[in-house]
């Protein structure tokens, strides 16, 4: 083999893997496309990003990326990983994972403290669910100044099946019998309700 062939092959091998910084992201098509700055002299347009199935992200400007160039061809690359040094969540324990955004929202799967959702002062919404079931062994606690519900609330749903609105109607209509009424200055106590809740 000639020295020229060996030099070309060595350059191809060296060019198989590279790193760069994100300038722009086009996220509207079937494949996310990115413009990158490789160095002071090289900018590459329309590099596709490979995301794991079921997960997608839009890396902010300045994110670091790792690229693979098929056959060492700088015109045929694909991004396989990204990171932003400023926004990366640090100091995770072994086995922990976190999904995070640039503005501080997180879903944090901790090693010993359960799952933490940090909304960063923004709404949390669950859409288009037929049923949301929470299986809690001890309790469900809501620390809030106001709890709203647009429909009925049913307690002891597996036994009485009666809503709080139905309980209120019973309460508003129930009567207490007063026995042994005496006139004058007597103090009269009511008996038990005729309808129990």
List the helices and strands and how they pair.
Layout: H1 3-14, E1 17-26, E2 33-39, E3 42-48, E4 64-69, E5 77-83, E6 97-100, E7 106-109, E8 115-118, H2 164-173
Antiparallel strand pairs: 1-2, 1-4, 2-3, 4-5, 6-7, 7-8
Describe this structure in words.
- The protein is of the alpha+beta class.
- The chain has a domain at 3-83: Beta Barrel (OB fold (Dihydrolipoamide Acetyltransferase, E2P)), CATH 2.40.50.
- The protein is 11% helix and 25% strand.
- The chain has helices spanning 3-14, 164-173, and strands at 17-26, 33-39, 42-48, 64-69, 77-83, 97-100, 106-109, 115-118.
- The strands form 2 sheets. A 5-stranded antiparallel beta sheet has the order 3-2-1-4-5, with no helix packed on it. It has a 3-stranded antiparallel beta sheet with strand order 6-7-8, with no helix packed on it.
- The radius of gyration is 32 Å and the shape is rod-shaped.
- The chain starts with a helix and ends in a 24-residue tail after the last helix.
- The model has no long low-confidence stretch (mean pLDDT 87).
